[in-house]
Design brief:
Layout (H helix, E strand, L loop, with lengths): L2 H10 L28 E2 L2 E2 L6 E3 L7 E3 L3 H18 L4 H11 L5 H9 L10 H16 L13
Antiparallel strand pairs: 1-2, 3-4
Helix pairs in contact: 2-3, 2-5
Pfam family, one: GIPC1_GH2
InterPro entries: GH2_GIPC, GIPC1/2/3
Organism: Bugula neritina (Brown bryozoan)
Length: 154
């Protein structure tokens, strides 16, 4: 199960309930070396930064997508909101939310599309969806920048 699915199940358990949690290492696939630093280059760009994503498409060939810095920052921001709202840190979930929201034109459309996916089980509040939509809008318009730490010299 994915992290957010386990978190949802644990959240739904009654306080006094007993449960067994078994942690199992994921099955290794033939794609285990894709996107690892120093593992080579993709057509027209490097995969060696470790941030590439292999997309397997049912209606066409597989492709490698390398997200730009704005998308990375947007996903980080969505993930931070997930952590403060649900107490889970899950980049895959944040990326799924980004992928849904990046194609939408307004928060109502975004909310309706979220409700038509497996993410509906979270029961996101309207306020949370609106905050996420703000983050997505900021990213789409280029208003989101990565905050870096720096030392001030006096």
């Amino acid at each position: 199960m994915r992290h957010f699915e386990v978190a949802k199940m644990l959240k739904d358990l009654p306080r006094d309930a007993s449960f067994l949690l078994r942690v199992v290492e994921p099955i290794k696939s033939g794609f285990a070396n894709i996107g690892k630093p120093g593992q080579g280059k993709a057509k027209g760009g490097a995969i060696s930064n470790g941030k590439a994503t292999l997309r397997l498409n049912s209606k066409g060939p597989a492709s490698v997508e390398v997200p730009d810095d704005v998308v990375d920052v947007a996903i980080e921001k969505i993930n931070a909101r997930l952590e403060s709202y649900l107490g889970i840190n899950d980049n895959e979930l944040a990326q799924t939310i980004w992928e849904i929201g990046s194609k939408m034109k307004n928060p109502v459309e975004f909310s309706e599309n979220l409700q038509q996916t497996e993410l509906a089980m979270f029961g996101f509040s309207d306020e949370f969806i609106f905050e996420i939509w703000g983050d997505i809008g900021d990213a789409k318009s280029g208003r989101m920048v990565k905050i870096t730490q720096f030392d001030e010299q006096f």
